[in-house]
Amino acid sequence: MSLKSEARRTALVAGQVDYTLGSIHVEGPVIERETGKEPNLLRWGKYGFNIYQNGLVCRKKYMETHPEIVEGFTRAYVRGWSFYIENPVEAVNIIANMYPELDKETEQLAWKYVMSIRYPPKVAKDGKCVFDPELVEETIDTIHEAFDIPMEELPKPEDIYTNEFVKDLPEEILHPEPKDGYTYEDVLKAYEEFFGS
Question: Given CB 3.0 to 4.6 Å as the disulfide criterion, which of 11, 22, 90, 153 pairs with 27?
């Protein structure tokens, strides 16, 4: 059955379908708000599909000729994430003031879903927005296997990622600690509940 995102979610909540594809941090909180129950989530990474999905992308030439702009943007991006992690209530209020059509309760519920995928234990240990070279290699290997692209045609990890612009960020930005009544234990709990240890 081919349905748009909202229709898939509506069908799931109504019991018309048993499962659906979606983004954990988008569908998860809406389903929880509408049903009063946390949905059962399937993490593809537990079944061999463990790849990077997000990152900041920049042309190499631009990065080489304008490193101060790339560094400034990266710093601002990581600081924004750190603020969201540390101040979930205030962050949601800011977002809701900017986008009044959003439902505050849903956005507050979304925090634990976002944290479970964006700030898992390994990220908390290594630092926010720090690439893991092994996962970059695994991502490339997955693309090789899934699309039957010869390895020699695929880029090397060092050709497509760098930690150069995050390595000197302050500790409090790389390793934020939730506030507003939340703790990092809440993040770990959400991660374990959603995905297992």
Answer: 22
Convert the pLDDT of each residue in 162-192 to its tens digit. 989 988 888 877 777 767 666 656 656 655 6
The number of angstroms, rounded, from the C-alpha of 135 to the middle of its chain's C-alpha atoms is: 15
Q: What is the DSSP string of 2-16?
A: ---HHHHHHHHHTTS
| 25-47 exposure pattern, b = at least 16 Cβ within 10 A, e = fewer | bebbbbbbeeeeebbebeeeeee
Q: What is the DSSP letter of 101?
A: T
Contact 154, 143 (CB under 8 A): yes
- Identify the pLDDT of residue 197: 42
Burial 153-165 (b: 16+ CB within 10 A, else e): eeeebeebbbeeb
Q: Domain segments of the chain: what residues?
A: 1-42, 50-195
The C-alpha atoms of residue 168 and residue 77 are separated, in whole angstroms, by 14
Distance CA 126, CA 131 (A): 9
192 Cβ contact list (under 8 Å, min separation 6) = none
Q: Cβ distance 41 to 194 under 8 Å? A: yes
| pLDDT at residue 192, as a whole number | 61
